[in-house]
């Protein structure tokens, strides 16, 4: 986004995502043990949100703990799979990933999956933590740091459909001929990936890539055998005969499509750049 207009944020590029096998206790079961039934939107005492407080202290909270919240209706929904995780990939959490206990809120931006969990609170209003009220909110391109009003936007939860080419870096030199294009696609809220389109002529024509989550097994969006919280890998072999722009774009199971231009979704914080992923390739003698 900063290539369009400078934003204030961490330059994640295409790497701010990962997949793992998480193990732990379902939050919905823990809440039921303390008297909050499944599918509860408000408690008898007016609680509507679940706040997660970390041991981690941060300057944005003036030395206080990192804290965020999710709606109680999400936390008590068995289908949402919110987890209090103590294992990652069948091993105890390491320090960097939140040992000894962290939250995993699948299908929601990572800022809500609190590491180094210290406490859980049931509260009437959204958490007033910095990262709920003064960060991770989506503003239109017309808003700048002089006219921003944080209270006019809700904290970001879900995230839009997106895909990334991983087999080529931007401004790659390739050997002309058959080239395999591969990467990942993902959409928030547990929505599946209906299609990934790839163009090798700058978006003039498109080819549909194959999709899979397990090697050799075709992926079907929203099928019972598909993992709704995991990314979907895609690949296609194409003919490239000259220097060009390779583009990928995804469509999710709700027919949401990635926006073409980053200018249309530019925002001062620089979040959710889900525009078409573009990679420039040059003819050369690479072994790719």
From TrEMBL:
Recorded superkingdom: Eukaryota
EC number(s) given by UniProt: 1.8.3.1
SUPFAM superfamilies named in the record: E set domains, Oxidoreductase molybdopterin-binding domain
Enzyme class: oxidoreductase
Cofactor or coenzyme needed: Mo-molybdopterin
Entry's Gene Ontology BP terms: sulfur compound metabolic process
Domain Moybdenum cofactor oxidoreductase dimerisation stretches: 155-282
Oxidoreductase molybdopterin-binding domain segment(s): 5-131
One GO CC annotation: mitochondrion
Pathway as given in its UniProt record: Sulfur metabolism; Energy metabolism; sulfur metabolism
InterPro entries, per database record: Ig_E-set (IPR014756), MoCF_OxRdtse_dimer (IPR005066), Mopterin_OxRdtase_euk (IPR008335), OxRdtase_Mopterin-bd_dom (IPR000572), OxRdtase_Mopterin-bd_sf (IPR036374)
This protein's UniProt keywords: Metal-binding, Molybdenum, Oxidoreductase
Keyword Metal-binding carried by entry: yes
Single annotated GO MF: molybdopterin cofactor binding
Pfam families (UniProt xref): Mo-co_dimer, Oxidored_molyb
Protein name: Sulfite oxidase
Originating organism: Senna tora
Upper taxonomic lineage: Eukaryota, Viridiplantae, Streptophyta, Embryophyta, Tracheophyta
């Amino acid at each position: 986004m900063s290539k369009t207009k400078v934003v204030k944020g961490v330059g994640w590029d295409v790497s701010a995502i990962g997949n793992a096998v998480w193990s732990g206790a379902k939050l919905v079961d823990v809440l039921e043990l303390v008297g909050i039934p499944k599918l509860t939107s408000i408690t008898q005492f007016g609680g509507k949100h679940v706040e997660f407080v970390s041991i981690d202290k941060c300057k944005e909270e003036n030395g206080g703990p990192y804290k965020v919240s999710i709606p109680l209706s999400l936390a008590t929904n068995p289908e949402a799979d919110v987890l209090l995780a103590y294992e990652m990939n069948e091993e105890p959490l390491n320090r960097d990933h939140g040992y000894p206990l962290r939250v995993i809120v699948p299908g929601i931006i990572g800022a809500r999956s609190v590491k180094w969990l210290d406490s859980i609170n049931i509260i009437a209003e959204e958490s007033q933590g910095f990262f709920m009220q003064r960060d991770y909110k989506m503003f239109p391109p017309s808003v700048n740091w002089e006219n921003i009003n944080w209270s006019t936007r809700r904290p970001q939860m879900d995230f839009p459909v997106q895909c990334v080419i991983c087999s080529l870096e931007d401004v790659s030199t390739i050997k002309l001929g058959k080239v395999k294009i591969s990467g990942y696609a993902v959409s928030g809220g547990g929505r599946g990936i209906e299609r990934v389109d790839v163009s090798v002529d700058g978006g003039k024509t498109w080819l549909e890539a194959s999709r899979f989550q397990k090697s050799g097994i075709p992926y079907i969006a929203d099928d019972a055998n598909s993992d709704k919280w995991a990314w979907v890998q895609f690949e296609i072999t194409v003919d490239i005969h000259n220097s060009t722009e390779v583009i990928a774009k995804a469509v999710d199971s709700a027919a949401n499509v990635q926006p073409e231009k980053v200018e249309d979704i530019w925002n001062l914080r620089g979040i959710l750049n889900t525009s078409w992923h573009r990679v420039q390739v040059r003819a050369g003698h690479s072994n790719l």
